[in-house]
Write a structure and sequence with these properties.
Keywords: NADP, Oxidoreductase
Oligomer: single chain
Radius of gyration: 20 Å
Number of helices: 11
Organism: Prunus mume
CATH architecture of the largest domain: Alpha-Beta Complex
Protein name: Quinone oxidoreductase-like isoform X1
CATH topology of the largest domain: Quinone Oxidoreductase, Chain A, domain 1
InterPro entries: ADH-like_C (IPR013149), ADH-like_N (IPR013154), ER (IPR020843), GroES-like_sf (IPR011032), NAD(P)-bd_dom_sf (IPR036291), QOR-like (IPR047618)
C-alpha cells in the first residue's frame, strides 16, 4: 500500500482525501514509478470541480510527475529500473507516492534537470511549446498578449516568446507579479486590477493590436482579448480560470476575420514521436537557459487541498509542486522558504 490523494465527490479543495491505495505490478507495456515530485496544474482544479469530467468517481487526480522507475512490465525494452522519467497528461493519478504508467507516455529526464523542476515543467512547457510553435507560429516582430503572465504557463510563454523575438505584453493581478513578469521577458506589463487592458494594448501597439492572444483566464478576459487582436489575428483560448466564456457569435470574429482556437495538448502530443520531440525541445530550452523554471511554491502531497486553495485564490505565482513526504504539523507554514528548502534538499 502507498499513500495517494483520491476524489470521491466533486467540489472544493476539501474533497481531496489522503488515503491508502494499492499500486500492484506493471503489466505488459507499463512501468511502475516512485514519484519524487508532482506538478500541480489548473486542469486539476477543473477536474475536481467537474468542469472537465473524470472517467470514474472516485478518481485519483493529477497529470504530471517526475520519478524513478521501480519495476517494468514483462518484455518491455527501452525503459529500465532506476531510470529518471517524467510524464504529463494521461492517465490521471500523479497525486500518489507511486503509480503505474504506460511506458510510451513517459519521457527520459536529462541528468542536469532536477526532478522538482521536471515535475513542474513538462505539462506547462509542452503547452507553451505547442501554443507558440504550432497553434500560432510566433516570429520576430510579432506582438503577443499573454494573460496571467506570472502563472506557470504564462511565465514560460513570456520567456519563450521573448526569445523568439516577439514584443510581449502581459497581464497580471498584482505589482509583485508584475515584477516577475518583467523578469520573464514581458516588455509591457498591465496590472489588470488597476488598468483597462484593452485600452493599454491599443496604446502600446499604436492602435494596431496584437497578432495573437494567449488566454487562460476565460470569462473575465475573452471579449477584451478579441478586441486586442489586429485584423486576421489569432485568439488562442487554452483555459478558463475565471469560468467559461460566454458564447461568441460568428459575427463577432468576422469583423476582423479573426481565427479562434480552443486547443488541447493531448491532440498535439498524440504520438510517441510528437511527445518526445516536444519534451526534448522543452528540456533543451531549460538546459540552454532560454527557459527559467520558477518553482515558487512546494507543499507536501498530503496537503494538496491547501495547494489547490492557494492556486484558486491567486496566492501563487510560477509553478506549484507537491512533494510525496509524510505530512508535517499543521502549524508549519508550507509556503515558508526554509520549509521549501527542506523539501528540496
Amino acid at each position: 500500500m502507498v499513500k495517494a490523494i483520491r476524489v470521491h465527490e466533486l467540489g472544493g479543495p476539501e474533497v481531496l482525501k489522503w488515503e491508502d491505495v494499492e499500486v500492484g505490478e506493471p503489466k505488459e507495456g507499463e512501468v511502475r514509478v516512485k514519484n519524487k515530485a508532482i506538478g500541480l496544474n489548473f486542469i486539476d482544479v477543473y477536474f475536481r470541480k467537474g468542469v472537465y469530467k473524470a472517467a470514474t468517481i472516485p478518481y485519483p487526480p493529477g497529470g504530471e510527475a517526475c520519478g524513478v522507475v521501480t519495476a517494468v512490465g514483462p518484455g518491455l525494452t527501452g525503459r529500465q529500473v532506476g531510470d529518471l522519467v517524467a510524464y504529463a497528461g494521461q492517465p490521471m493519478g500523479s497525486y500518489a507516492e507511486e503509480q503505474i504508467l504506460p511506458a510510451d507516455r513517459v519521457v527520459p529526464v536529462p541528468p542536469s534537470i532536477d526532478p522538482t523542476v521536471a515535475a513542474s515543467l513538462l505539462l506547462k512547457g509542452m503547452t507553451a511549446q505547442f501554443l507558440l510553435r504550432s497553434c500560432f507560429k510566433v516570429e520576430p516582430g510579432h506582438a503577443v498578449l499573454v494573460h496571467a503572465a506570472a502563472g506557470g504557463v504564462g511565465s514560460l510563454l513570456c520567456q519563450w516568446a521573448n526569445a523568439l523575438g516577439a514584443t510581449v505584453i502581459g497581464t497580471v493581478s498584482t505589482k509583485e507579479k508584475a515584477a516577475q513578469a518583467k523578469e520573464d521577458g514581458c516588455h509591457h506589463v498591465i496590472i489588470s486590477k488597476e488598468e483597462d487592458f484593452v485600452a493599454r494594448v491599443k496604446e502600446i501597439t499604436s492602435d494596431n493590436g496584437v497578432e495573437v492572444v494567449y488566454d487562460s483566464v476565460g470569462k473575465d478576459t475573452f471579449e477584451g482579448s478579441l478586441a486586442c487582436l489586429k485584423t486576421r489575428g489569432y485568439m488562442v483560448s487554452f483555459g478558463q480560470s475565471s469560468g467559461a466564456p460566454d458564447p461568441v457569435p460568428l459575427s463577432a470574429i468576422a469583423v476582423k476575420s479573426l481565427f479562434l482556437t480552443r486547443p488541447s495538448l493531448f491532440n498535439y502530443a498524440a504520438t510517441r514521436d510528437e511527445l518526445l520531440g516536444m519534451a526534448g525541445e522543452v528540456f533543451g530550452n531549460v538546459q540552454s537557459g532560454v527557459l527559467r523554471v520558477r518553482v515558487n511554491h512546494t507543499y507536501p502531497l498530503s496537503q494538496a487541498a491547501q495547494a489547490h486553495e492557494d492556486l484558486e485564490n491567486r496566492k501563487t505565482s510560477g509553478s506549484v509542486v507537491l512533494i510525496p513526504i509524510p505530512a508535517v504539523p499543521n502549524e508549519m507554514d508550507v509556503s515558508d522558504c526554509s520549509f521549501q528548502e527542506t523539501l528540496l534538499s
